[in-house]
Amino acid sequence: MTINQLSTQSPFTTKDGSTIRSILDRTNAPVQNQSLAEAVVPVGQPTERHYHRLSEEFYFILEGQGTMEIDGETRAVVPGDAVLIPSGAWHQITASQTLRLLCCCAPPYSHEDTYFANL
Predict the structure, then answer these.
(1) Over pLDDT 90: what percentage of the chain?
(2) What are residue 105's DSSP bridge partners?
(3) Is the pTM of this model over 0.70?
(4) What's the number of CA atoms in the CB half-sphere (13 Å) around residue 103?
(5) How many domains does the chain have?
């Protein structure tokens, strides 16, 4: 049985610029098909617009408010919102109040599966 406590996970910055704490992923559990992380997006520091070729993502907003952009469509997000980000979809999230969210990726998140327009 694997149980990981969020408070014991060390934060790090992902390739898109968000600060996350991996709750369950290949680095801290025998994960095969998905990953779960908490992300924090401060006001004035949006994620860099990017896409993942392989991973489909879910964002679940826990705290704060912001704007989610997926493939040119923009919508406001608030606590309780769940966002589907299909694999291959360009996306970016911007905070108007510091955002704290859960991010689930399948297959698991990897830096190697994160692509930017300038690369």
Answers:
(1) 86
(2) 35, 57
(3) yes
(4) 25
(5) 1
